[in-house]
Amino acid sequence: MDILNSNWLIKMLEKSSQTPDGRLLSLFDILEDWLEAPNMREQIGEQFSKPKHARQLQDYLTIEAAKAGAAMPEVLANQLYFMAISATQERLQANIHEASGHAAFNHAKSAANALIFAQTKKEFYIAKSSAYAIAASFLGILVVAGTLYINQNMSQAAEKKLAFASAMPIQAAIPQLVSSDSMADPQQTAALMAQIELMRHGNCQLIEAIQLPDQYKGIYLNMVVNGQVSTDPREQQIAMELLKKTRCNYTPMLMANSTG
Amino acid sequence: MSVLREKILNTATNLFQTQGINSTGVDNIVAVAGTTKMTLYKYFHSKEALILEVLQKGQSDFQTWLDEKLNSNSKKPSDKIQQLFDYVEEWVNSPEFIGVGFIKASAEFPNEENPIHQLSSQQSREFRLFIGRLAAEAKIKDADGLALQLSLLFEGAVQAEQMKRGSGAIKYAKKAAKILIDGAIKS
Questions:
Q1: Are B103 and B16 in contact, with CB atoms under 8 Å apart?
Q2: A241 to A141, A188, A192, A226, B95: CA distances (angstroms)
C-alpha cells in the first residue's frame, strides 16, 4: 500500500486524537504501527526511499497545524512530513548496533513535539509584543488624562479613573518579558501552583473564559481551570494576572452561612 | 586544483541543486561552465564520479566552515551543541545556500546498491555522529538519541526550505532544537 497517499492514513489520523497537536503527533505512531504489521516490510518498496509529495496528507497536516495555532502551518506540515519519512527510513535501516534507530519514531516524536511547541506557543508572544507596547502606551495616556481630570473635579475624576481601571486591557497589566525562551523560575512555578491549589478550596467566581481575548483563553483554561501549569514564564505571568482577577471567598462554608 | 576543474565542479553543484541531479545532463554542465565534454571527462571519468565529488566537496566545505565557527566561539564544552543550530541557520539563510547535497542525492538515488546513495547515507550518518560527539562533550546522557532528534529536525527543515526558499523552517527547527537540548542537559 502507498500509505503516504492513502485515505486510510487520513482516516486513522482523524480519529487518533481530540486535539490538532495530538493528531499531528499521531502520524509517527500510526506509521510505526503500520511498519510492524506482518510482512509489511517486503511490500514497502520505494515509497520511503524515494518519497514523492503526498498532496492530500500534506494538506491535511497543514490544516491541523493551522488549527493547532501554528505561526506558519504549511511550513510546520512540511517539516513534520519530512521528519516522518526520515524516521521511517531510519527505522527500516536500523541495525543491531544502533539502539537509537530502533527508537527512531520515539525520537522523531520528541523532535516533532518540540517543533509544534516552537511554532504554536513561543512565536505567538514575540509577534504580540508590539501589541503589549501599544496597550501599555495607551494606558499611559489614560493615566495622564485621568490625572489632569482630577485637578478639575476630584470626586468625578475618582469615579472616572475607576471606570478606566476596570476597562483596562489585561495586556497592559502584563509586563513584557525580554526572553521568551527561558524557563520560568521554579519558585514562581511553585507559587503559581500553590495559588491555583488554594483556589480549589475557596468559593471562587471564575472569569468567563469566553470573555477573554483568544490568546489568554487557552492559558486560562489550561493553567487555572485544569491546573496544568506550564513552565513558560510569559504564560505563568499571564496566569498570575488572570488569577488576580478571580474573586475568591475563602471563608469556610459553615461560617459563611452563619454570617449570612 | 585546476581552475577549469573547479569551475566544472561549482557549475555542477549549482545545477544539481537547482534542477535536480538526474535531470542535469553532462551537456548542460559543459555548456554553462563554458567548456567541452572532453575536458569534463579528462577531470571526471563519468557523471557518477562527478556527482560523488560534488557531494564530497559540498559536505567537507560545510563541515570545515562549521568546525571553524564552533571552535572559535565556544568556551564551555556545552557551548558547541547549543550554538550548532545558530550556525546552521546562518548557513541556510546565507544567499549562497542552495541545499544539502546528501539530502537531495539520497532522494534521487534510492537504490541502496548505488554508490551515490551509499555516499549520501554515509554523509547523513557522519553528520549525525558529529552531533552526537557534541552532545557527548556536553555530558548529555542519551547523546545518540539527541543526535537523532536534532538531525531529523535539521533534515526536515532543510527539505522544507528546499521546497520554499526563505520559509522560516530553520528558525523553528532552531527553537525546537533549543527545547530538546535544554531538556537533555537537565536530565
A1: no
A2: 22, 13, 11, 17, 44
pLDDT tens readout for residues A192-215: 665 665 665 566 666 666 667 776
CB atoms B160 and A111 under 8 Å: no
Compute chain A's Rg from CA coordinates: 25
- ipTM of this complex prediction, to 2 decimal places: 0.91
Contact residues, A window 47-66, toward B, CB-based 8 Å cutoff: 49-51
Distances, alpha carbon A254 to alpha carbons A91, A248, A258, B186, in Å: 62, 16, 6, 47
Residue with cell 541502496: B112
CA dist B126 and B147 (Å) reads: 11
Q: Which residues of chain B neighbour A108 with C-beta distances below 8 Å?
A: 148-149, 152
| A187 exposure class (CB count in 10 Å sphere: 0-12, 13-18, 19+) | exposed
Beta bridge partners of residue A249, listed in sequence order: A203
Extract the C-alpha cell encoding A12.
486513522
Interface test with A, best of B82, B125, B142, B179 (most A CBs within 10 A): B179
Alpha-carbon distances, residue B3 vs B35, B36, B45, B132 (angstroms):
12, 14, 18, 37
Measured distance CA(A9)–CA(A16) in Å, rounded: 10
Which residue type sits at A224?
V
- 3-class secondary structure, A235: helix
Cell of B177: 532544537
**What is the amino acid identity at position B77?**
P
Q: Is residue A209 a contact partner of residue A221, using CB atoms and an 8 Å limit?
A: yes
Nearest to B179 among A46, A99, A114 (CB): A114
A134: left (phi over 0), alpha (psi -120 to 50) or beta: alpha
Other residues' Cβ atoms within 10 Å of the Cβ of residue B37: 12
Q: Taking a C-beta distance cutoff of 8 angstroms, is the pair B157, B169 a contact?
A: yes
Q: Which residues pair with A248 in a beta bridge?
A: A204
pLDDT tens readout for residues A133-186: 555 555 555 555 555 554 555 555 444 444 444 444 444 444 444 444 455 655
Supply the DSSP string of B72-106, one letter for each residue. HH--STTHHHHHHHHHHHHHHHSTT----HHHHHH
For residues A20 and A57, give the distance between their C-alpha atoms in angstroms, rounded to a whole number: 14
CA distance readout (Å), A61 to A22, A56, A80, A161: 11, 9, 8, 49
